[in-house]
Design goal:
By secondary structure, this protein is mainly alpha-helical. The protein is built from 5 helices and 2 strands; from the N terminus they run ββααααα. It has one domain. The mean pLDDT is 95.
Amino acid sequence: MSDRLFAILDRAVPSIPWSMIAPHEAQAQVNHHQTLDRLDARGGLTPCEAIAVLEDRSWSRMTQPAAQAALVEAVRRHRSAA
């Protein structure tokens, strides 16, 4: 079964599995005052924003390379757990 994708505003990591971010919908609402469906329809999140949501914390600045690396690692862990 293929997983729906959630858009990431990044060429290196253009999307992540929906099943990875869906459990963090409440944090997306807190951080962005929008549902995941709405955020996805508007183009998604930056890697930095996505990591904050995935870690259930408020947004704080990260460098682009650090955010990309953290997101790649989070996707790797998610896929290996599936």
